Amino acid sequence: MTPKAAPEDETLRGSRALYERPLYYDQAYKRHNQDLQYYVALARAARGPVLELGAGTGRVTLTLARAGISVVGLDQSRDMLAQARARIEREPREVRDRIELHAGDLRSARLRRRFGLVIAPFNLFMHLYTRQDLERGLATVKVHLAPRGKFAFDVLVPDLGALRRDPARVYKCRPVFDPTDGKHHAYGESYAYDAVQQVQKVRMMFQRLDRPEIERTTPLSLRCYFPEELNALLHYNGFSVTARYGDFARGPLTSESESQIIVARIRLSRSKR
């Protein structure tokens, strides 16, 4: 019998597994576009190159570049970056020339450049599972922000109903197509929430429709940040929150909001204000 992995190993595996399948990732999230024009508007106002943390397969990166904005993308997944480069190669030269990609860990990357805007779209910071990881990630933001530059990111608002789901139950969803193998799969998800670590562990389960004996499970680990907790973490790491929204149309953050969208700056000492 194979011993079960330690919880830490499960969490770390859940930070990588989905991103080892970039073709499926693009297929699964191709309709996630409500944030794009929000980040384009911020980037245009910044009037300069933008640093995108968690560039992935280029969903936001390409949108910015097509809008005439120069963007430097950072991601630790070489699989995702390879897919991004393949997509970029199909773009006109003027779009390609606006994009620069780097492989690196959000917690330690140092590009020796500063930007008027640093962004971390689509729940990236939910992969920073400990206080130490978050502090390192925020330190990376700080060393790349120009004076009075902005840091913008989004994370989900914790859904208490979802966090109380029975971990033994599988929630069946619509069948999905996976371009990785070119097959259709029955698809379901299960959820287990660690209330101490504040990490929700999702298990995405795939079963081939043509050959049901072929099954695969992909874990996904997401650190949950409650709004006032996140506000405090930013404050005590040297940031001032200048705007906080509940949707990408800049509506207010409420108890009904799905996401919390944050804009912050490095907090200035009194002598520099």
**Widest sheet, order of strands:** 3-2-1-4-5-11-10
- The residue fraction in helices comes out at 25-40%
- Tally of alpha and pi helices: 9
CATH class of the largest domain: Alpha Beta
Taking pLDDT < 50 over at least 5 consecutive residues as the criterion, the unreliable ranges are none
Number of strands: 11
Tell me about the largest β-sheet.
7 strands, mixed
What fraction of the residues are assigned to beta strands by DSSP? Answer: 25-35%
CATH H level, superfamily name of the largest domain: Vaccinia Virus protein VP39
Mean pLDDT: 95
Order of helices and strands: HHHEHEHHEEHEHEEEEHEE
- Described by the principal axes of the CA atoms, the overall outline is globular
**Tally of separate domains:** 2
Rounded to the nearest angstrom, the radius of gyration is: 19 Å
The helix-and-strand class reads alpha/beta
What is the CATH architecture term of the largest domain?
Answer: 3-Layer(aba) Sandwich
The first-to-last residue Cα distance is 62 Å
The third-level CATH topology of the largest domain is Rossmann fold
